[in-house]
Amino acid sequence: MDIKERILELARQYHPYSIEQRRYLHQHPELSFEEVQTSRYIASQLRDAGIEHRQGVGGHGIVALVKGRQPHKRVVALRADMDALPIEEANNVPYKSLNNGVMHACGHDVHSASLLGVARILHDLRDTFEGTIKCIFQPGEERLPGGASIMIKDGVLEKPKPASIFAQHVHPPLRAGMVGFRPGMYMASSDELFVTVKGKGGHGAMPHECIDPIVITSQIVLSLQQIISRYCDPAIPAVLTFGKINSTGGATNVIPNEVKMEGTFRTMNEKWRNEAHKRMKKMAESIAKSMGGACEFNIVRGYPVLHNHPELTARAQKWAIELLGKDRVVDLPLRMTSEDFSYFAQAMPACFYRLGTSNPERGIQSALHTSTFDIDEKALETGLGLMSWIAFQEVRGER
Predict the structure, then answer these.
(1) Who has the most CB within 10 Å: 113, 128, 183, 374?
(2) Residue 251 forms beta bridges with which residues?
(3) Cβ contact 292:197 at 8 Å
């Protein structure tokens, strides 16, 4: 049996194990930077498999090392995130979340369960390759500043230092059994906007005696869209959205003293990102001042643009076709969501690819971050086999 068939056979063998792990993690979700029990559980699985690992990296993060022959010859990293979201699960399944208001609605249970299975597969194959596979179980992907940045600061990419890093992420637009790749620019940066517009409140029947912050805010929201439509190069994807607006002390006949709003700004170009920050702040403050009010415009800088290393991603896509067949590997479009894996991609050649999870015939097709998100668990076998195959090929230096 050649190594490809051996990996496919091990993926089938460990598929029930990965389902078991995924269901346990799904039932016991924990929010970002609160993954205490999740971390302990993952460590226990690594310990049971006899896989060397270290806990407490960047908080609740774990780093496991699968060492082949001559472990220092070449090092390749694999990453899975493990935090959940503040969502009440609506699915009626045996593995439904047991933690009220917390749910694995972004598939991080799948990512961690897959990497646990991959670690076991590669551990079984350790005598067939030279080098080390570094498995990174990362906390806090869903919340700034992002667990990836914290783990990097804590030395996760050192001792040993990987030559490259890979991650897979569930993707409901693709059927289970399918995977997708995109070299180069793939996912957007994401910044959080917190804006306070101050005016002078009073009676709604006498606006001439007031400085209405609601009118000022309305003007700011509409005018800021010009940042995208009139100042951004049409070739650069960009999105500006305000999702929350609240007044302080207003009523049907009361003009409030201030309005607060929150939003997100996303783009695919770091230079334009910096310019847009300046333009938004200046425009909002100027509008408020011209109307007699004031504006505090606070930008919390989030994750950078995610750039997949072109050559590395091309190799991974080629290996996916070799393992799964050309009909099961697709090219992905740009995506305006964001990922803190981008911090890893800034540090070294990186590839972030997608794992199909849907099954429309069974009603499994809900989007990420929804209360009904679920997966066709056949996807786990695909994920186990492909990540193991990619890691095996990359650590051997195959081209």
Answers:
(1) 113
(2) 254
(3) no
Q: Which residues are catalytic?
A: 303, 377
CATH number assigned to the domain with residue range 3-186+305-395, chosen from the 4 options 3.20.20.70, 3.40.630.10, 3.40.50.300, 2.60.120.620? 3.40.630.10
The token pair that represents 90 in the structure block: 């609506």
CATH class label, 191-300: alpha beta
List the domain boundaries for the chain.
3-186+305-395, 191-300
Q: Mind listing the pLDDT tens digit of every residue in the chain (399 residues)?
A: 799 999 999 999 999 999 999 999 999 999 999 999 999 999 999 999 999 999 999 999 999 999 999 999 999 999 999 999 999 999 999 999 999 999 999 999 999 999 999 999 999 999 999 999 999 999 999 999 999 999 999 999 999 999 999 999 999 999 999 999 999 999 999 999 999 999 999 999 999 999 999 999 999 999 999 999 999 999 999 999 999 999 988 999 999 999 999 999 999 999 999 999 999 999 999 999 999 999 999 999 999 999 999 999 999 999 999 999 999 999 999 999 999 999 999 999 999 999 999 999 999 999 999 999 999 999 999 999 999 999 999 999 877
Q: First-to-last CA distance in the chain?
A: 22
